[in-house]
Amino acid sequence: MSLALLLAWFVLDRALYWLYPIAYILCSLAFTSLFVIANDCGHYSFLKSRRVMSFVGHACMTPLFYPFYAWKYSHDAHHKYTNQLRRSESDVYFDNAWLPETIGEYESERNTAPILATLYRYSRIVLPLASIAHLIGYHYHPAIFRTDHRRKVKFSYHVAPNIPCYRLREANAALQASPYGNMLRQFPLTLRYLYTQWKRCHLWNARNEQYIDFNSIRRNPLGRE
């Protein structure tokens, strides 16, 4: 991270305009490293002292203009409520990373709020729009910040398996040898796979419990909810 920032600073300081794109990439990698450290601090898994981890988490998130506690609590809920489509109206925190638009909701919006439906459709295709809407709605919304929130759940989470101290390879081997081994689904993560998800996963079909794309509604009316 330090080397990436040093090289980026050198390029920007010397006004080497033709190297600016590389400097932007290096800065992005460095900021991503800060976010990874803050993520581990939010999980209380980076150091032994929670007080120190809270300080480090704030220090890492501040350059990113991202509230550390908002991430810590909302990310806790993301792990706790993974794949739960519905939630209580009183729940401020929920799995906002998996809250898909259902077919019924989308078709209702097309009739009552066509502009909103159009924005949703384009946000599934133009990626920055979806990210901006997600940040505003689920990370920066004033209703998220409440004084009575406390951390109440501890869980495992996704990290880079190559980090030796996490011993994730040993944990994966233990899972495969357990009675739940036949339930594991593992496959290589490729750019082609990510592209396929981006093209196909637009709306949630609650009847079949699977994603469909927008065009499938017109091609297969019987597949609607």
Task: Please explain how this structure is put together.
The chain is mainly α. It folds into two domains: 2-160, no CATH class; 161-187, no CATH class. The protein has ten helices and two strands, in the order αααααααααββα. The protein has helices at residues 2-13, 20-42, 50-61, 68-80, 103-112, 114-125, 127-138, 168-177, 191-200, 214-219, and strands at residues 203-205, 210-212. Strands 1-2 form a two-stranded antiparallel ribbon. α1 (2-13) runs antiparallel to α2 (20-42), α2 (20-42) packs antiparallel against α3 (50-61) and α5 packs across α6 (114-125). The radius of gyration is 21 Å and the shape is globular. It starts with a helix and ends in a 6-residue tail after the last helix. The model is unreliable at 150-157 (pLDDT under 50).
The helicity comes to 40-55%
Number of continuous helical runs:
10
Mean pLDDT: 75
Estimate what percentage of residues fall within beta strands: under 5%
Shape: globular
What is the succession of H and E elements?
HHHHHHHHHEEH
Task: Return Rg in Å.
Answer: 21 Å
Low-confidence stretches: 150-157
Number of discrete domains: 2
Main sheet record: 2 strands, antiparallel
**DSSP strand count:** 2
Major β-sheet strand ordering: 1-2
What class do helices, strands and sheet pairing give? mainly alpha
**Termini distance?**
48 Å
Please sum up the structure shown.
By secondary structure, the chain is mostly helical. 53% of the residues lie in helices and 3% in strands.
